[in-house]
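Hi, here's the filled form for the chain we discussed.

Project: internal
Contact: R.S.
Residues: 225
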Amino acid sequence: MMGSGSGYDGMMGSYRGGSGQGMMGGAYGAPTPSSPARSASARDLNTVRERANAWLRAGGFDGLEVAEVMAFTRNDYVAIEDASGHGAFELISGPRGEWLMPEPGPNMIWNTRYGMMGGSGWGMMGGSGMMGGGGMMGGGPFRVVTANGAMSVSTSQASQTAQAWLDRRFSGDSTGTPDAFYGYYTFHFEKNGQIAGMLSVNGYSGQVWYHTWHGGFIQARDFGA
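And the returned structure, exactly as it came back:
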C-alpha cells in the first residue's frame, strides 16, 4: 500500500499527477475547487515559526526547534529538528494559521521515534485536540518510541531512488539534498532551479511517498543553526 510500484504512493496520497485525493487528501489541504489561493511574506513565515515553537515548548519538547518553514498555496510546511541538528518530525499549518498538525504520510507512518509505530501517539484517538485550538488530530502529546537502529538506506542511495522516481514521472526535476528524519528522508525536489514538490524515501525499504497535499510552492526560510 505504501510502495512506489502502483498508481499510489502511500495510503494518504493521491494518484500521481491525477485528480484523485486519496483516503485523507482533502483533510490536509489538498487542492479542491473551494481552496483559496494565497501568498506568504517573510513575516508570515516568522509567525508560523513562533506558533510552532510555542507548541513545542507547551508540549515539553525541550531541545526541539523549528528548522525551516515553507509556504505553499494550501498549507505551510514546518520541519522540526533536535539539538544536534537532526530532523525530528514535520508539521503542517493552515494557510491562515487556523490549525497546526503533524504532517500526514511518512511523518506519521515511517517516523521511528515520533510517529505512530508501536502504538505511540500522534494522538489520533479522542481528547481535546493535540495541537490545541481544535487541532485536526485529537488526543494528548505523542510519545517517543524506540528507533529501529541506523537506517540501512544511505543518503546517496535515497537520492538515487528519489531521482529515478522523478525521472519516470516528472522529467527534468531534480532531487536536491534530502533532510534526514528518523526512519526516512524528505526531498524538496526542483525544476529549473525552483522547488516543485516534495517526496520522502523510507530509510529501510527505499519506498517512495509523494507528498500531494501542499499545492504550489511560494517561499521558504531556513531557521536552522
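Let me know if anything looks off before we file it.
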